Amino acid sequence: MLGITVFPQPRSSPHPHHTHNINLYQEASQKPAHLVPLFNPSNHHSTIMTPFVLTNVSCLDLCKSPHPISTGIGFFDHMIDQLNSHAQIGVSVTVRQEGAADTTNGASSAERANRYGSGDQTELIGTVGAALGRELKKIVPARNEIATSRFCCPLDEALVECILTKCAPSSDGELTDAQGKLVKFSLAPYGKYPANKGRSKIGCLQTSCVETFFSNLAQHSGLNISLSKIRGDNGHHVVESAFKAFSRALRNLIDGTDTNHTSSAEFQNMWGERSESHSAGLQLEREGKLERCTKETSILVHACFDGLPNGQESVQVDTGIKTMDEFVYILAREACISMEVKCKGDLYVDDHHTSEDVAIALGQVTNNALGTKAGLNRMWCAIGTYGDAEVEVTMDLSNRPCITHNLSLSSNPNDEEYAGDLSVEMLDHVLESLVINSKFTVHFVENKVGTNVRETALAAACAYGKALRMCAAVDPRRAGKTASSKGTLSV
User: Fold this and answer.
1) What is the mean pLDDT of residues 195-201?
2) Of 53, 55, 63, 379, which has the highest C-beta tally within 10 A?
């Protein structure tokens, strides 16, 4: 476990609880503590001096910092806190203005949280980005080759992709600050209100400074960072998705894993069938069962997560609709769920009642089996293929059900009315019923169109199952705690 705070207490200090302010760059530049160099993304060789003093700056791997996050901009604090919840890095930083009188006495908690909420925030946010970047550089393992990590974070009104690249050492074996850069940044506009402009402020955070933060963090961490908005109409959620995607990609980069490289030794050690994660999942004995009978359908769904202890996992599906059977079978196999699904429905009427009820029941069983979702990985993105179709699913066990997709259903190339023997309109409804009753947030992104809608449907099932398997995986490092800055997913 690594973690070095920027402002350590000297051993000779006669005051055991006093924190000394040591400038981030003092050793190299011998600048006074209150002059913190700030990276200017418009000029890689320029240095701006800022009057802000940072104390208790730390990024501690897999442990909590005893100090708070207090930058003087409340929403910015909330975003930095995503590193605690989603990167499992104990982050702390306190900002004060050099020579300024303490005006927070008698102020409300909101006023203290936003003490620097007015005025230009570029220097403050850039300084924090540089400071945290230097601390992150200490805990990202140095490797002899370039390492890449990609993660997409799904919120109900936003989906942002983050790609991190750890630069290879230079010829002399050293990593320099100049090796890190913000390769791509395309988040604006921040929401759709006002039209074509988006939000200029979220809380007291000026949205124009989000890029400044990541520019400085990239340069001083030695990481190449790419942040791209795939979709998003809510400014708050666009920024939050960016910070969460960065945090998740960072965690994977430190672990040596990546979302779509599941065969690597590092991935198998962390999440494979012989891992501590898999064993912990089996010990939970996560199981769900539902039986119900109406005038329209008679249905049974029984699911056991993580397969069976003896490895004899099985999937048996009989709904009377071949495409539905294939969809559920592929989903279950990719999710490592032993499953029995039986349905006798009024197919002489239409496929509507049968396909809808199977999707509803499957979602309800999944949600019940996962319980509170505490201690689980919670988020993942995965790609599934079938025939010529390729679909990516980004999933969050959020308890805030939402589905967004761009699958070629209403505008499929062949104007098909059916995906095999399942009507296309019911395929759309099956996806919605499954996600809503599972209480997940799910984004489907169609990367390649199939030769027919059936291929698209089964590629979506494959990606959904892969993502569900990883979201439901136990992360032993969380020790049963929920992966959320709220501390719970139940409200």
Assistant:
1) 95
2) 379
